[in-house]
Amino acid sequence: MSAAPLLAANEAPNVLFVICDQMRADALGMLGNPNAKTPNLNALAAGGVLFDRCTSTNPVCVPSRKSMFTGLYPHHHGSLTNDHDSFLPLQGTMLGYFQKLGYKTGYFGKNHTFLKEAIAKVDSEGVRDREKFRAYDADVNPWWSSEAPWPEERCHPHLNTQDALRFFAGVKPGERFFATVSYFDPHPPYFAPPRHVAKIKAESMVIPKTPLPSALGPRIDEHSHGMGFEKMTDDVIRKTMQHYHAAVDWGVDEQVGRLMAGLRHAGLDKNTVVVMVSDHGDFMGNYHMVRKGMFLYEALLHVPMIWSGPGVAKGVRSSAPVQLHDVFPTLVEMTGGKVPEGLDGVSAKALVTGGKTGGRTVAYASAGYGELDAARLKAETGTDALHTRVFNQEMQETHRTSMIREGEWKLILSETRAPELYHLPGRSHEMKNLAEDKGSAGVRRDLEAKLGKWWQW
User: Fold this and answer.
1) Residue 385: is its pLDDT beyond 70?
2) Coil, helix or strand for 170?
3) Are 398 and 371 in contact (CB under 8 A)?
4) Using alpha carbons only, what angle is made at residue 296 by residues 292 and 301, rounded to the nearest 5 degrees?
5) Rounded to 5 degrees, what are φ and ψ at 456?
6) Is the Cα dihedral 42, 44, 50, 54 positive or negative?
7) CA 432 to CA 423: how far, in whole Å?
8) Average pLDDT of the segment spanning 397-414
């Protein structure tokens, strides 16, 4: 990848790229969710550009994160599921691009993207995944929620932010930096310190009004039964939602507030473009389920995206479709460079700077999946949590599925199951499969043709 020319030294901004894990778009209070408590993210969005139609390229961590840093769709960068054996070198990625341009680079928090030897080449790194007490085992609460058993200052959200603040303090006059701060929250096990859990009342949680999984299709219905979600009472779902939103409040929102205060304290806020995203979402009450899976539904693909800083429009909320792999080409242009050839991502600079049009018109996503073997699940024993046994089967790249979203219509195709077609006005969720509806046949044919051209299995 050849280095693109920068703006003049006094014009080229720094970049702070904030990623969280499994935060669905409507966990952002500014989007009207009555359960959400996100004052710092709301303030960031109010002072910049909030995209309320951002779509992930994949419903799980590794493929989505690789898309962000490569600007490629999953079937082009090579990971359709959480394949931990296919992490990236720096070369050809957004991080490598800015490092080659001479930016001081930092990476703090969850990785799930780069090879260890690649991350070791950044100027400052502090890679952390989940705390050891958050592993999936027989001791985990069946619905994966609890209060943090360690002091806050020893938990990873606090430590990741501390690393970033030290990095900001070490930026010298005339230096430009590209820093990634990657938080594990609100990924399950959903947990937060008691003071945050106490701020959100379980009984006040509003469960999304969506049908049971059987209304969408047999594969998600089988997933729900495999995970045992039919055993969850409404009270248990509300308690899980309480801990999820407390994890957003503490592990994401409070930390973003600390980051922004740190930029101001270091005198870097006026010349730093801040981008905040989540890698994918969470069912979190939709279809009487929580967590994620290898499915291409809005609960898992619709994620927050916020831009702020020099050159970014202020107080704009855009419903233009954007995707996570658009971040790379957009940041290249926002820092005065020319977008490298071969990227699938589309620059949204025109929208970020206040334009009404620009970027993409259609969103796509893809994933791999394995079919659940009910007999094998029933026969398996051991100490692993149910989550692990189900995901070990579903995470196999045995079959492929893909999605197209254009306007208010969405089509999902899978190799082993019937097509799914949904009408999605506004920010609604999938409610009724219209694939066999005669009145929607023309829409289905049109989307099938476009989806087939995008990725021919």
Assistant:
1) no
2) coil
3) yes
4) 70
5) -90, 110
6) negative
7) 8
8) 97
Say if residue 397's pLDDT is above 90: yes
pTM of the model: 0.95
| pLDDT, position 374 | 83
| C-alpha triplet 10, 11, 14: angle, nearest 5° | 95
| DSSP secondary structure string for all residues of 308-345 | ESTT--SSEEE-S-EEGGGHHHHHHHHTT--PPTT-S-
Number of domains in the chain: 2
Domain's final residue, options 294, 321, 355:
355
User: Is 1 part of any domain?
Assistant: no
Instruction: Give the integer Cα–Cα distance in Å for 95 and 178.
Output: 8
Alpha-carbon separation of residue 157 from 34, 185, 194, 273, 275 (angstroms): 24, 8, 15, 21, 18
The reply to whether 2 falls in a domain is: no
- Residue 8 within a domain: no
Checking if the pLDDT of 5 tops 70, the result is: no
Kindly report the number of other CB atoms within 10 A of residue 174's CB atom. Answer: 7
Q: Which residues pair with 18 in a beta bridge?
A: 181, 276
E strands within 88-200?
Answer: 104-109, 124-127, 145-147, 177-186, 190-192
Q: Are residues 234 and 373 in the same domain?
A: no
Place 377 in a pLDDT band, splitting at 50, 70 and 90: confident
| Domain shared by 309 and 450, yes or no | no
Residue 376 and residue 244 share a domain: no
Range of the domain at 110: 14-355
| pLDDT over 50 (residue 361) | yes
Strand order in the sheet with 362-369: 362-369, 399-406, 409-414, 420-423
